[in-house]
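Quiz preparation item.
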């Protein structure tokens, strides 16, 4: 029973994280400057993957209440969900937000700024 609670919580996290990531491209919240915004294509791809896998896992998890063979697939999907979430986290930390500065660097005037 406790496994099912964590299983469906993971499914919800995957769905909502994917939804947030996919919608951040269309209408950003404005909490970060434009220089560190997520790239649109990878964000849509990750968002779609997380949402689709979370929804699929939810459906298989619910179908598992009717079919014992589908119930056995929950453990595999739970592990895959953690793997996807871990890979997504690594992408966000190391590759997702790379600054691209458009402007030119300012000229230094030789005076130190404190």
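Solution:
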């Amino acid at each position: 029973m406790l496994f099912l609670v964590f299983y469906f919580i993971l499914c919800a996290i995957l769905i909502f994280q994917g939804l947030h990531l996919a919608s951040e491209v269309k209408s950003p919240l404005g909490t970060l400057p434009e220089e560190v915004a997520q790239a649109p294509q990878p964000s849509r791809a990750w968002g779609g993957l997380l949402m689709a896998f979370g929804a699929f896992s939810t459906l298989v998890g619910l179908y598992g209440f009717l079919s014992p063979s589908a119930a056995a697939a929950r453990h595999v999907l739970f592990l895959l969900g953690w793997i996807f979430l871990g890979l997504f986290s690594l992408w966000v930390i190391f590759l997702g937000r790379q600054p691209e500065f458009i402007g030119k660097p300012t000229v230094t005037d030789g005076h130190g700024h404190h």
